Amino acid sequence: MWWLVGVLFTLAIGLRHRVGGDWWAYLLYLERATPLSLAEVLNSTDPGYILVNWLVAQFDGPIYWVNLICGAVLMIGVMSFSRRQPLPWLALLVAVPYLIIVVGMGYTRQAVALGFLLISLSSLARSKIGWFVFWVMLGATFHKSAVLILPVAALASTSNRLWNFTWVGLMFVVGGYLFLFDSAEHLWINYVQADYQSEGGLIRVLMNSVPAALFFLLHRRLRLSEAERKLWLWMSLLALVCIPLVVVSSAATDRVALYLIPLQIFVFSRLPLVSANPHFRGAIALGVVGYYALVQAVWLFFATHSFAWVPYQNVLWFGGW
User: Fold this and answer.
1) Burial of 218 (0-12, 13-18, 19+ CB in 10 A)
2) Nearest Cα to 191, choosing from 107, 253, 106, 145?
3) Can you give the residue range of the structural domain that contains 245?
4) What is d(CA 84, CA 5) in angstroms, rounded to the nearest whole number?
5) What CA–CA distances, in Å, run from 59 to 26, 46, 320?
6) Helix (H, G, I), strand (E, B) or coil at 316
7) Does 320 reside within a domain?
8) Is residue 89 part of a domain?
9) How far is the C-alpha of 2 from the C-alpha of 243, rounded, in Å?
10) 234 close to 151: Cβ distance less than 8 angstroms
11) Could you report how far apart the first and last alpha carbons of the chain are, in Å?
């Protein structure tokens, strides 16, 4: 049943039709990837995503194939991360309103990067820093901004800290050189100096700050290992730091804050455990369900760009590709 739900979500993401604010922009990615050589693909910006498009184009495949592959990566990350939480179904529910529906169906490249990040966080919680770096770097081939989450590995290390700081720092420099530094000036001009504003950016940053504040208040009652406690303490701190930063540049901060969404899944799926009373646990769980139902409703009815998701359409309803 668990994996059946994962497959259904993957099909909903992958076979969507004209759903998402960047639908037409992603069609252009597929069109532009078609005539490229493999060498040009590997030297492109976000080579992982371009490679997926290029491979699909070699078989004259439609955009739905690209979205299916990307949706599968996201859902593998969501499902594997959720299943490691004490209340996995609650964790999955927390992921639905924003991570799966909004990001998964609207920010395809960052959705894949988030899928790999969720896999990497499971590794880091078990102190497997090497695997964390590997999955994050793989995610950065789909969206370069994923590199910015690499320093968390060094900050969250609980042993051999000097060694971990050294080699993770080296990987951050390598990743930055490969994916980020060449466009740093362009990003600074467009996101900071141009004062480009992301509508709803402050709200999304505040959505991460709620579980961050709860973590600082309740982390001693969440039954965490030392590695988990340190990892999510830093993630929570980063979420709170985003609040003043969003005033400086809402768009840039909003993009980075997407990588802190796993904090919501982690904290809210554990929140009922703060109570030893089973009745209170049930009430807290219902409160979490109600909170995310409200998040979904507010986004559907009041978000500026929600019209791009509504009504939801699926290619299967049209009898073909």
Assistant:
1) middle
2) 253
3) 2-314
4) 16
5) 18, 21, 17
6) helix
7) no
8) yes
9) 35
10) no
11) 28
Let me know if 184 is exposed, middle or buried by CB neighbors in 10 A (0-12, 13-18, 19+). Answer: exposed
287: left (phi over 0), alpha (psi -120 to 50) or beta: alpha
Q: What is the dihedral of CA 21, 74, 140, 231, to 10 degrees?
A: 120
Nearest residue to 118 (alpha-carbon basis) of 4, 266, 238, 296? 266
- With tokens 């081939």, the residue in question is 141
Tokens of 114: 């988030």
Question: Per residue of the chain (321 residues), what is the pLDDT tens digit?
Answer: 898 999 999 999 999 999 998 999 999 999 999 999 999 998 888 899 999 999 999 999 999 999 999 999 999 999 999 999 999 999 999 999 999 999 999 999 999 999 999 998 888 777 777 888 889 889 989 988 888 887 776 666 656 555 455 645 555 555 554 455 455 444 444 444 444 455 567 888 899 999 999 999 998 888 888 878 888 988 898 899 888 887 766 666 777 888 999 999 999 999 998 888 888 999 999 999 999 999 999 999 988 889 999 999 999 886 555
In a domain, 150, yes or no: yes
In a domain, 261, yes or no: yes
Tally of domains in the chain: 1
